[in-house]
Amino acid sequence: MIARLTGEVVQLGATSAVLDVGGVGMLVHCGPNTTANLRLGQPATLATSLVVRDDSLTLYGFATTEERELFELLLTASGVGPKLAQASLAVLSPDDLRSAIATENLVALTAVPGIGRKGAQRIVIELKDKINSVGLADRPAAPAPSRPPAWRDQVSQGLQGLGWSARDADAACDNVEPLVAENPDLGVAEIMRAALKSLAKK
């Protein structure tokens, strides 16, 4: 299993990145909170999970090993695929996700696009006894976020990559624009989280 990659970021999208690792370009699918902290031409280290299917080998990347462990645990729940697991970690922080499952907070879980009430109940039933053992030890510090000039495009593309419509993504960007104007130093990851919260209130 490929558990970690370190290399130069040679290509960067809203939900993916290519790292040059020893001359080999490795495509890694990442949540928008992770890609927001990557920079073209700069070295990066990602915790990774290799998802094997009959017709594909797909790498998913995360800022921390805790996020990767939660992603892999979510995949063990019935009806949860990689895209839904990534969306869960984009909408909820690791601590919030762990708390939502442990306390059976279905409202928090259904804020994730693609998770309905029945799906949230299934996740709670299947993972409640396992969730608190994941990622508690040796948490690495997340890199400090910074806001690139094109934050709106990154946030909009990231939201659409998680399943929201272009209209909803634009509306969410409009909702958080005053927040960005008030605090220009906000990172894209923080702006993304605020945008997701605004959509969850709809």
Automatic annotation (TrEMBL):
Keyword match Hydrolase: yes
Main location: cytoplasm
Region (Domain III): 145-202
Keyword set, alphabetical order: ATP-binding, Cytoplasm, DNA damage, DNA recombination, DNA repair, DNA-binding, Helicase, Hydrolase, Nucleotide-binding
GO MF, one example: hydrolase activity
Gene Ontology terms: biological process: DNA recombination; DNA repair
Cellular localization per UniProt: Cytoplasm
Domain Helix-hairpin-helix DNA-binding motif class: from-to ranges: 72-91, 107-126
A single Gene Ontology CC term: Holliday junction resolvase complex
Record text about domains: Has three domains with a flexible linker between the domains II and III and assumes an 'L' shape. Domain III is highly mobile and contacts RuvB.
Record family assignment: Belongs to the RuvA family.
Subunit structure: Homotetramer. Forms an RuvA(8)-RuvB(12)-Holliday junction (HJ) complex. HJ DNA is sandwiched between 2 RuvA tetramers; dsDNA enters through RuvA and exits via RuvB. An RuvB hexamer assembles on each DNA strand where it exits the tetramer. Each RuvB hexamer is contacted by two RuvA subunits (via domain III) on 2 adjacent RuvB subunits; this complex drives branch migration. In the full resolvosome a probable DNA-RuvA(4)-RuvB(12)-RuvC(2) complex forms which resolves the HJ.
Primary role: The RuvA-RuvB-RuvC complex processes Holliday junction (HJ) DNA during genetic recombination and DNA repair, while the RuvA-RuvB complex plays an important role in the rescue of blocked DNA replication forks via replication fork reversal (RFR). RuvA specifically binds to HJ cruciform DNA, conferring on it an open structure. The RuvB hexamer acts as an ATP-dependent pump, pulling dsDNA into and through the RuvAB complex. HJ branch migration allows RuvC to scan DNA until it finds its consensus sequence, where it cleaves and resolves the cruciform DNA.
Name of the protein in its database record: Holliday junction branch migration complex subunit RuvA
Organism: Microlunatus parietis
Gene expressing this chain: ruvA
